[in-house]
Design goal:
By secondary structure, the protein is an all-beta fold. The chain has strands at about 10-15, 20-25, 30-40, 40-50, 55-60, 70-80, 85, 90-95, 100-105, 110-115, 120-125, 130-135, 145-150, 160-165, 180-185, 190-195, 205-210, 215-220, 225-230, 245-250, 260-270, 275-280, 295-300, 310-315, 320-325, 335-340, 340-345, 350-355, 355-360, 370-375, 385-389. Strands 4, 5, 6, 7 and 8 form a 5-stranded antiparallel sheet that branches. A 4-stranded antiparallel sheet has the order 3-2-1-31, with no helix packed on it. Strands 9-10-11-12 form a 4-stranded antiparallel sheet, with no helix packed on it.
Length: about 400
């Protein structure tokens, strides 16, 4: 590639309430840190507008372990030439900490998922990009146990809420997981359509899903079971098969052999020929040292006729807990955000594995080639969200 080519595309990564913009250079071998913007509270998730230079963020002073007391949606405008970000309008209050958020395909609504309590809300977007009022729903919605993600189908006619459930604990039985499918109207109304819960949701702990760009195939990562499911849907996306067509492991090792070994987010390549799932391990021993596990991107080839995913690679992310990863708009680069700094003992000495942004080239067969990584100082915080716009 031409090394004199101008910088293009921006990477946005959050540590606590600080959101930093990076640029990657023309040969895509490194990241260049640019400006940092302070948000009202810690960034929980973000989603870019499908056609306009706006980025929307859910912020909270809570965390996965803390309910928190202050929560909001924030809108940013991104300079079309540089990607430099600036606040747009005032933050819009939310009733609880958001776990996930997304926009519909037309950029007319923001949809927000919450886990405590499990629910979803819909908010109008105004023509100028500002956030309008919440759409009061006419139907009481059952979003399952521990809503973890909300996605709008490519037809824009349906919404799927991914409800993770919870593992069994001492004196507490397992909470079943499910996919809750709703029809979605042009006025922002959700209406219950169907529920997907194999084996009544027991042993089914989905975290995230993604849609194939041209076929009625839905790929679901199972956090609690370290698995990948593929489901058939109808063209509207408002009906999803009750049982998966394919069930695949995400790990190269046997599930359960390592503590705190979980599957994470899932992304289908824009060309529809590959699907990627993050594996995350962060188990500690009695000395609070990292005990190892699989921190990698599982790469699957997608059969063009059946949609079956077949594993072709486990690519080490060179860090721990790739909580988010993203493909660039060309589909030639994958960036993984290793979210934590963790202590490890190596050759009898203590050392740190830092949080980082790891770059990979996407090869013609969908497999990944490691390029390099940029360490990110996080202190006591976490590299919680990252995206490319």
């Amino acid at each position: 590639m031409n090394s004199n080519h101008k910088l293009s595309q921006s990477v946005y990564a959050s540590v606590g309430k600080m959101l930093t913009r990076y640029e990657f250079d023309a040969d895509r071998s490194s990241l260049i840190k640019r400006e940092t913007l302070e948000l009202p509270f810690n960034v929980q998730y973000a989603w870019a507008h499908p056609t306009q230079p706006f980025l929307y963020l859910a912020c909270s002073n809570g965390s996965p372990s803390e309910v928190g007391s202050a929560h909001c949606l924030v809108s940013l405008v991104l300079n079309g030439q540089s990607g430099v970000m600036s606040m747009m309008g005032e933050p819009v209050g939310l009733a609880a900490r958001a776990v996930h958020m997304t926009l519909d395909q037309k950029g007319q609504f923001i949809l927000v998922a919450y886990n405590k309590p499990s629910r979803v809300s819909v908010h109008r977007l105004l023509a100028n990009g500002l956030i309008g009022e919440e759409v009061e729903q006419t139907q009481t919605l059952d979003t399952g146990i521990y809503a973890h993600q909300v996605r709008v189908s490519l037809s824009n006619k349906s919404v799927i809420v991914v409800a993770r459930g919870n593992n069994a604990k001492e004196n507490q039985p397992e909470d079943p997981g499910s996919l809750r499918v709703f029809s979605f109207s042009e006025s922002g109304q959700l209406k219950t359509s169907s529920t997907v819960a194999p084996k009544q949701g027991y042993g089914f702990g989905p975290r995230h899903l993604d849609f194939h760009p041209s076929k009625p195939w839905v790929y679901v990562s199972l956090e609690r079971q370290n698995g990948l499911h593929m489901y058939l849907a109808n063209e509207m996306g408002d009906q999803v098969a009750e049982q998966p067509s394919y069930v695949k492991p995400t790990l190269s090792e046997e599930p359960g052999s390592r503590p705190r070994q979980r599957s994470g987010t899932v992304h289908v390549h824009p060309n529809g020929r590959s699907v990627y799932v993050a594996n995350r391990a962060s188990g500690l021993d009695s000395e609070q040292m990292y005990v190892g596990g699989e921190n990698n991107i599982a790469v699957y080839r997608i059969d063009a006729i059946s949609g079956e995913p077949t594993i072709i690679q486990h690519m080490d992310t060179r860090g721990v807990v790739a909580r988010t990863f993203a493909l660039d708009k060309t589909g030639t680069l994958l960036l993984a955000a290793n979210s934590q700094t963790i202590r490890v003992k190596k050759d009898g000495q203590q050392t740190l594995i830092p949080a980082s942004l790891a770059l990979f080239h996407v090869l013609n067969d969908g497999s990944l080639a490691y390029v390099g990584k940029t360490d990110v100082p996080v202190g006591e915080e976490v590299l919680f969200w990252m995206g490319i716009a």
